[in-house]
Amino acid sequence: MAKKKQEAIFTPIGNNGDDNGRIDKAVDLPEATNKSHKKLGLSDDQVTEMYEQMFLQRRFEERAMQMYQKGKFGGFLHLYIGQEAISTGTAFALKNDDDIITAYRDHGWGLVRGVTPKAGMAELFGKADGCSKGKGGSMHFANVKEHFWGGYGIVGGHIPLGGGLAFANKYKDNGRVTACFMGDGAVDQGALHETLNMSQLWKLPAIYVVENNGYSMGTAARRHTVGEIYERAHGYGMKNAVFNGMDVFTVYENMKKISEEVRKDNMPYFVEIRTYRYRGHSMSDPQKYRTKGELEEYQQTDPIERLKTYIIDKKVATKKELEEIEEQVEEAVLEAVEFADNAPFPKDEALYEDMFAGEPYFHH
Ligand SMILES: Cc1ncc(C[n+]2csc(CCOP(=O)(O)OP(=O)(O)O)c2C)c(N)n1
Ligand SMILES: [Mg+2]
Predict the structure, then answer these.
(1) How far is the CA of 28 from the centre of ligand 1 (A)?
(2) Is the CB of 213 under 6 A from ligand 1?
(3) Which tens digit of pLDDT belongs to each residue from 112-147?
(4) Which atom, in ligand 1's list, is nearest to the CA of 187?
(5) Is the CB of 51 under 6 A from ligand 1?
(6) 144 lines ligand 1 (CB under 6 A)
(7) CB of residue 37 inside a 6 A radius of ligand 1
(8) From the CA of 217, which ligand is nearest?
(9) Which ranges in the chain belong to alpha helices (H)?
């Protein structure tokens, strides 16, 4: 008698890909909203600032990658390249004292919230002049003065901290909104669900945003999570949205609308922004789970190229003016590399500093 084939216990749902685990489409990008910057209330100067910021994030990381490969620093290095429209569109949409917190893919967030290229690069190099005094490295950029509460390494671990920031803001009645970012890999962590539950219950002014870049390390989002990510909100009766993250205007428009609504109603939102990560998960990723063709397809939607084309077509600035901006950014990044290279390492005593908020817990 033929043995009945054993059913797999874990039946993957959705698009399971070929034998190598490859899938047809990493992430379906919704249409960009295609409104002009004037219609969105953005000035010409703001649009060129957006361009400068996105270009800075890109060049900073390209140089960082080079320095890593040269052996200037080690450890983890997760690049944000491809996702710059999300940090930039969000920072322009929020108020400057609204709180932002994110996971470890955090360089772009630091730069858009006042970490200078020098302080950022020095942090990567593990130097005392880094934004976290050289003790955090790539995954722990922060600039609390400008309400950027940092990058965190444990997937989903920072989400309750985001909820805590929102709780504090509500308690103090200061009108601030908290935007808590995470990757698609965090959507099934219990910490997210506990936080969504309490946020809805306590009516917290928070926006929980998933940057769905198609992959969690080497696992496609379609293979690690069931259904559509934004629908997670339904279980909590939470307002939700999904939109394109490769167009800075689309991010700006949606985040502006959502943040104003959250500020007014004191009710949270759950948002999925769809994007694509161009580089590997970290520097040690051979990227066998995706084809070159797939990467190239998404690079056609590049947020920086898209904005550049818009700026030139709509005569917001000339090609020459943009090239000048690019040169200045390039120079600032090279200066940052030199600064980081020459900066001192933290002193041994620094090991005991910054462990506790307020008074030192113990003296040595
Ligand atoms: C709790 C926990 N489990 C596993 C890891 C190892 N890990 C580091 S990054 C990562 C993938 C996260 O992917 P995603 O949330 O999509 O973020 P992305 O890298 O795409 O920005 C995993 C599993 C971790 N850091 N924390
Ligand atoms: Mg991801």
Answers:
(1) 21
(2) yes
(3) 999 999 999 999 999 999 999 999 999 999 999 999
(4) 15
(5) no
(6) no
(7) no
(8) 1
(9) 44-69, 84-93, 107-112, 117-124, 159-172, 190-201, 221-224, 248-265, 292-299, 303-313, 319-342
Ligand 1 near 13 CB (within 6 A): no
Q: Residue 206 forms beta bridges with which residues?
A: 178
DSSP string, 201-268: HTT--EEEEEEE-SEETTEEHHHHS-S-GGGGGGGGT-EEEEEESS-HHHHHHHHHHHHHHHHHH---
Q: Which residues surround ligand 2, an ion (CB under 5 A)?
A: 183-184, 213, 216
Q: Is 183 helix (H, G, I), strand (E, B) or coil?
A: strand
Which ligand sits closest to the CA of 106?
1
Query: Would you place residue 6 in the very low, low, confident or very high pLDDT band (cuts 50, 70, 90)?
Result: low
Asked whether the whole model's pTM tops 0.90, one would answer yes
Average pLDDT over all residues of the chain: 93
The ligand 1 atom nearest the CA atom of 153: 25
Q: Which CATH number fits domain 44-343: 3.40.50.150, 3.30.70.100, 3.40.50.970, 3.40.50.1240?
A: 3.40.50.970
Residue 361: band (very low, low, confident or very high) from pLDDT cuts 50, 70, 90: low
Burial pattern 147-185, b for ≥16 Cβ within 10 A else e, equals bbbbbbbebbebbbbbbbbbbebbeeeeebbbbbbbbbb
363 contacts: CB under 8 Å, gap ≥ 6: none
> Residue for token digits 């970290």?
282
Is 107's C-beta closer than 6 angstroms to any atom of ligand 1? no
Nearest atom in ligand 1 to 182's CA: 15
142 DSSP 8-state letter: -
Q: What is the DSSP letter of 143?
A: B
The ligand minimizing its distance to the Cα of 190 is: 1
Residue ranges of domains in the chain: 44-343
